[in-house]
Amino acid sequence: MSSVFGEPGYAPLPDGRRLHHVSQGEGRPVVVLESGLGASRVEWGLVMPALAERTRVVAYDRAGLGRSDRDPHRRDLERMVEDLGHLLDHLGEDRYVLAGHSLGGPIIRSYAAAHPERVAGLVLVDQAAEDLDIYYRKDVRAMTLGVQSVMAGLAALGVRVVPAELRRILALFPPDMRAEALAEMTRPSEFRATLAEYAALAEGFARLRSSQAALPPVPVTAISGALSPSKVESRVRPDLVASHRRLVEAHPHGRHVLAERSGHMVPQDEPGVVVAEILRIVAGPV
Got a GO cellular component term for this one (predicted)? Predict the structure, then answer.
């Protein structure tokens, strides 16, 4: 099945599942994009074309999202990192530039810490930060799981659930991208996959926080959104940005960039900022 997001393909996994991916462009190093919680390849629709002018770029759907097979295993951080590793093995390159948005940040950081020889650079796009208490608070987790369960239930009954933030983001896409994204992102399976990712989030983050795994000595950019469009985000935003700064300031090749016109959704609100930082690493030392 074709995709307006790029040339489609499937990576076979050892347990028989398949991960769907799309690619654009030619060249090396290959850039691989890791999406946020409950998000598929479509998150990168405004970023991929500009990257493809300089090198090959690949985005994929994690298990249960987009066109990838669901995973009967618990969807914890380690499982997601394992799947990413199989995808990279399938793509067949020696080293990659990895970019991850939100939850994608801890996923690619975990992979880089375990496989430093495979990573040429990292771009962390408003990444989720495991050192923030909000990911572990029982009241926040209960409320979020409840909302996600309700949305999954409504979708299963045939109600098209389109949250306001999703409507805003999709309005930024060209019509063909918007249509493909909307058709997939409102399916019951998407909400179930999102629920599965969030259900295991706190335990995976706790292990990551305690591991203190070191990143490889490669360029690492953290991009932080500067805006707080909601009351909830305004309470979290200062601590999140501070976490991003701490991470890169402790790294010998770290760099912090503020996306002045974005909140959390930097890949859609300011795709040019993301593209510029990825291509800076692709180009290598000046």
Answer: membrane
Give the pLDDT confidence of 233-254 residue by residue, as tens digits.
788 999 999 999 999 999 999 9
Could you give the number of structural domains in the chain?
1
Does residue 1 form part of some domain?
A: no
In the predicted model, what is the mean pLDDT of residues 267-274? Answer: 97
Q: Is residue 109 part of a domain?
A: yes
Strands 220-225 and 96-101: unpaired
- pLDDT for 207: 94
pLDDT per residue over 8-20, tens digit each? 999 999 999 999 9
